[in-house]
Amino acid sequence: MAITDIARYTHLSAADIKSLGSELDTIRSDIENSRGAADATYIRRTILFQRTLDVVARLLVVGTRSKIGWTLGTAALGFAKSVENMEIGHNVSHGQWDWMNDPEIHSSTWEWDMVAVSSQWRSAHNYRHHVFSNVLGEDDDLGFGVMRVTRDQPWEKKHLLQPLQNLFLALTFEWGIALHDVDLERTNAGRGQQVKALLGKIARQGFKDYALWPALSIKRWRRTMGANAVANLLRNLWAYVVIFCGHFPAGTQKFTTDVLQTETRAEWYLRQMLGAANFKAGRLLGFASGNLCYQIEHHLFPDLPSNRLAEIAARVRPLCEKYGLPYNSESLAHQYGSTLRIIHRLALPDNFFGTGRDADVAAISPRGRKRRQQRVASRRGSALRAA
Hints:
Largest sheet: 2 strands, parallel
Shape: globular
Number of strands: 2
Distance between the termini: 34 Å
Number of helices: 15
Strand content: under 5%
């Protein structure tokens, strides 16, 4: 059985799950059929805004002598890099804009502004992560291969260093992603080609950030080099927070491989809904996060345009209420706090906290599942009566 035993955990019958899948398919179809000029304008304006902000930030760094000017320029550059990384690079690489048939804004041609190779990321992320989301042994993004994020992963002494590993990963997130995307299961020749491509990308990024831009700044090359380093660090920290808050907070469920044996498309939808988490955000925070504040909706429809996720969320949340499903959405601070709590707790042996099984970090116990079923069934009944 799956760790969370999908059907029993959500107290839904096979017919309920099929109906849920049908309603989600309708949402997908509606969005696909309504994509058009407004969406194309959005992504083109976003790219123009990001590139303009990048230039303005760099001019501010080299064109002022004050620390305030450098700080403002560096902060603006960090924001520009975050937008490029998340709202543009991540989403374009998911194929969200392939329907436009624009060769410059296409998943097969876009190369983003960080050391990871886009083609390697697409293979590791779009397939291994989004198809096998939160399945132990299949989803390589589950703890990124270096951290324990569920008690169903055996504890080892190396996990004692997990809090430090978490901090190091936050600071070097683009490097962690780049190395993580190299497919170690390939043949020696295939793996060698990937490593060669990665080294080439690292060389190009290093030259651009720490040689070309400083050289163009002439006598103020130190200001530019420092600004690039800090902006990359800010981008890394922000991307790390957004990604971790969407995947590891309390309530995100994990699954064993047997869930894949007979999984239907509707059950795949259900696994995405139970395995992801949102955080509450306004328009600016949502834009800065690449609209990954709607991680649940992104996991349901990873190739639909990011600017439509808020619209999709307004339809998904009522579905969760209708079918008595949890909709994991809290403030950014709450989601990150619960993520840190889980990371630090799971750095220690299971028996350190006694024999009880914590629903935040492991499978729900039969008693805990029963209590949850009763609570959700009560909410579902109230929602149906109100309807």
